[in-house]
Amino acid sequence: MTAMVMTADAYDRDDDVPMSSRLSRFALGTAALFAAIASVWAFFHFTGLEPVARLQIQARFERVDTAELDAALRPLLQTSFVEVDLQAVQRAAGALPWVARARAEREWPATVRVRIWERVPAARWSGDVLLDENAARFDPAGREVGDALPRLAGPEGSERRVLTMYTQLSARLDGTPFALAGLQQDARGDWTATTADGIELRFGRTDPLLGVDVLLGPATRALGPQLADVRHIDLRYTNGFSVGWREPAAATKRN
């Protein structure tokens, strides 16, 4: 078989072809094009009118309840394939406590695919409410998440600021006697942290990171093995710190 290569000259040489032949070829080409378009339209039209045959969920679940997710989405799929409201599907999935976001799309002929991104818990916020890694609050809906999460608190709207400060401060103090278990900022702007050993660190209204060098330097050297008896360390001083001591066990019993 000989391959034909169409050059620009061969393509443009139409001068010797009668006008009637050219019009005939144009009409045939146009008819073929419309026939192809009609076939494609008919395929999508008639298959689109069919009911949804399959719901496909794409996710890596650890805490999302798949039965709860299915129950939330199924009623929205009781219609023809093309009439499924994808925005409503996304909203229904995103309303579940452990879903960070969702994306829904059609896959012909009759499948609705929903991609789920699960929340990653980062901290407890002012009690039993949780913060995810993006500092968004959500209610775990009774699901146990353990006690390993740090406990954070702050004024309304301060979630991202407190979580960011905790992340930065914790990175500086991990592996030291002052590894953090929690951080809060009160309505006046005062920062207070709690260590894993129950020591309260009072930073005041200044950036808590500015007190780290004092804490890991002079405070650690001065307190040494007495850290087990320390109740709080006040770092609100310009050139030093003060210490509050735990009450002796014997004295506590006598009271």
Automatic annotation (TrEMBL):
Alphabetical GO biological process terms: cell septum assembly; FtsZ-dependent cytokinesis
HAMAP family referenced in this protein's UniProt entry, alphabetically: FtsQ_subfam (MF_00911)
Bilayer topology: Single-pass type II membrane protein
A single Gene Ontology CC term: cell division site
Protein name: Cell division protein FtsQ
Record's keyword annotation contains Transmembrane: yes
Keywords (A to Z) from UniProt: Cell cycle, Cell division, Cell inner membrane, Cell membrane, Membrane, Transmembrane, Transmembrane helix
One Pfam family named in its UniProt record: POTRA_1
Known function: Essential cell division protein. May link together the upstream cell division proteins, which are predominantly cytoplasmic, with the downstream cell division proteins, which are predominantly periplasmic. May control correct divisome assembly.
Compartment list: Cell inner membrane; Membrane
InterPro entries per the UniProt record, alphabetical: Cell_div_FtsQ/DivIB_C (IPR005548), FtsQ (IPR026579), FtsQ_C_sf (IPR045335), POTRA (IPR034746), POTRA_FtsQ_type (IPR013685)
Family, as annotated: Belongs to the FtsQ/DivIB family. FtsQ subfamily.
Subunit structure: Part of a complex composed of FtsB, FtsL and FtsQ.
Main location: membrane
Entry annotated with the keyword Repeat: no
Domain POTRA: 39-119
